[in-house]
């Protein structure tokens, strides 16, 4: 039983071709493209989150081997896409910041390629095998959600720190103005009440 479980786990891990998490900086007026070589029936899962820069948005698209657009998002801060390959070849996905004139963007993204499960006709389908496959898919989704949540937390923390810094500097500026006004009023009132002698 233990050996069978180990074999099923190995088969499940082998069915996941690749899984990776990346961060990329997309300068203003530029784009960054990547590709995955897929077989027909492979499932390409991509999720991304803009962590820093401007309004936290980028353009995103996926093209198939014939360079036809299969997914498209304009000025998106975050998204998740699943695409099942309809043909074998190179699938390209791009993050574009061409609409921005000054601000670079930092994009964190996860890529997961799942191979379809092929049933062995000589063996009967095992319910444990199906359960392990479903469990592994669930674990991958949880992992992607955790990475997405961490990216959101980082974005919100950066926003809070920026806001805090602005509040501190504005408070110091107001304190300086208040001090100058006090000095001016004291000086003015002092002169107002000075007794002037006529010689």
UniProtKB/TrEMBL annotation:
One of its GO terms (cellular component) is endomembrane system. Pfam families: EMP24_GP25L. Keywords: Membrane, Signal, Transmembrane, Transmembrane helix. Gene3D superfamilies: GOLD domain. Residues 1-21 form the signal peptide. The chain crosses the membrane at residues 167-189. Its main location: membrane. The keyword Signal applies. It is found in: Endomembrane system; Membrane. Residues 31-113 form the GOLD domain. It is a single-pass membrane protein; Single-pass type I membrane protein. Belongs to the EMP24/GP25L family. This is P24 family protein beta-1. It comes from Entomortierella parvispora.
């Amino acid at each position: 039983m233990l050996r069978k479980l180990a074999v099923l786990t190995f088969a499940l891990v082998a069915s996941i071709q690749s899984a990776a998490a990346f961060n990329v900086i997309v300068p203003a007026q530029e784009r960054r493209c990547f590709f995955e070589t897929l077989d027909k029936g492979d499932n390409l899962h991509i999720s991304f989150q803009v962590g820093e820069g401007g309004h936290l948005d980028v353009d995103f698209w996926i093209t198939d081997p014939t360079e036809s657009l299969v997914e498209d998002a304009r000025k998106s801060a975050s998204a998740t896409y699943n695409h099942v390959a309809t043909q074998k070849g190179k699938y390209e996905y791009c993050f574009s910041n061409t609409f921005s004139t000054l601000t670079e963007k930092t994009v964190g993204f996860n890529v997961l390629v799942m191979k379809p499960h092929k049933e062995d006709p000589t063996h009967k389908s095992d319910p444990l095998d199906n359960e392990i496959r479903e469990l592994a898919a669930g674990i991958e989704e949880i992992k992607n959600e955790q990475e997405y949540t961490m990216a959101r937390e980082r974005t919100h923390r950066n926003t809070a720190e920026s806001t805090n810094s602005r509040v501190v500097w504005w408070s110091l500026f107001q304190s300086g103005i208040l001090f100058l006004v006090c000095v001016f009023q004291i000086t003015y009132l002092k002169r107002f009440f000075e007794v002037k002698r006529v010689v």
